[in-house]
């Protein structure tokens, strides 16, 4: 518990703000009302399963209507803080692999001109490393899971894989010889069986994306696409800042490493935070932490969110919950029941019901529902249009809350 939680987390008493969060049920009548609200929320999620984010759209529309004139309010806020701090500091928090760094990349694409040719080329070594590393992880897991190659000849290819990957990674290229080895291994049905059991060991979400396209990414003239870059994975260490301008305001988005060893650095970023975006890996409900291979990623995320949501540092800080990787949850829930993480779950193993249930687990951790509202969004961090829409809604919330704080709304 102490490892998972943020040091210094305590309960808070905040200045009153309007809240739509529900109280925990204590009577049969309240439980009945809660079930009705959950059914309504499930229906809203279902309406957004086509990837357009229609539920988020409806919520954002209602909030924008309350603003009356968003553009005018933005200008009012900008004028009000001119001569003071005009910088909006957004702190990205969450466990490792929750999608924080991908959100930062999306801000660069949406608000900072994206990646030029040279920047794209710089991602090539990382992408090739991701592909090679993923395949070597699968091959190592074969013995652990007691899975054999379908074709015995692949055992020799496995030896070759480990012999060739070192030079390939140092040069930042996949040679024709290594390409052949990787394609044969990836095409083996035993390897595919091991890949399908990736919840039993550590494997990145981008594995199939890269290994299904080895010919393209191994070509000598290969230049990573924007999607290739968004799907690349590099563990964040330290503190990474990204500045951009949107709606006449300057934003500073701060990304920090999500591993336990990195969290002691978080406190250095707390000063002057306007809003926190807490990212949750929805599809991690059946996975374990990299750090100890025992703790559930979802349980770790819940404990960490509890520490942030109820921390004295953030009494007047907007709290935005990104329930990320909704696309992966929609695919995984068909194969792996939510009860592997939440034993008390009684709903159907559908995206709609599972998503609502997970959302409620996080929102119910808020011990100050009368004074603090959590703004939740279901996201797919690799989907630029989804993130663009959600961030627009998030910005409106931040502006509204800050206008309230300074007495203009």
Q: How would you characterize this protein structure?
A:
- The chain has helices spanning 28-47, 54-67, 70-80, 100-111, 117-122, 124-144, 154-171, 176-186, 189-196, 207-211, 214-218, 226-231, 297-309, 326-332, 351-363, 384-405, and strands at residues 87-94, 239-246, 249-256, 275-281, 318-324, 374-378.
- With 409 residues, it is of the alpha/beta class.
- Helix 13 (297-309) links the parallel strand 4 and strand 5 (318-324).
- 34% of the residues are buried.
As residue ranges, the low-confidence spans are 7-31, 49-54, 65-73, 80-84
Structural class: alpha/beta
Give the termini separation.
Answer: 40 Å
- What is the percentage of strand-forming residues? 5-15%
Specify the helix fraction band.
Answer: 40-55%
Biased composition (Basic residues): 15-34
Keywords: GTP-binding, Lipoprotein, Magnesium, Metal-binding, Nucleotide-binding, Transducer
InterPro entries: Gprotein_alpha_I (IPR001408), Gprotein_alpha_su (IPR001019), GproteinA_insert (IPR011025), P-loop_NTPase (IPR027417)
Protein name: Guanine nucleotide-binding protein G(Z) subunit alpha
Helices and strands in order, then pairings?
Blueprint lengths: L27 H20 L6 H14 L2 H11 L6 E8 L5 H12 L5 H6 L1 H21 L9 H18 L4 H11 L2 H8 L10 H5 L2 H5 L7 H6 L7 E8 L2 E8 L18 E7 L15 H13 L8 E7 L1 H7 L18 H13 L10 E5 L5 H22 L4
Parallel strand pairs: 1-3, 1-4, 4-5, 5-6
Antiparallel strand pairs: 2-3
Features:
alpha/beta, nucleotide-binding, 409 residues, Guanine nucleotide-binding protein G(Z) subunit alpha, lipoprotein, GTP binding, 6 strands
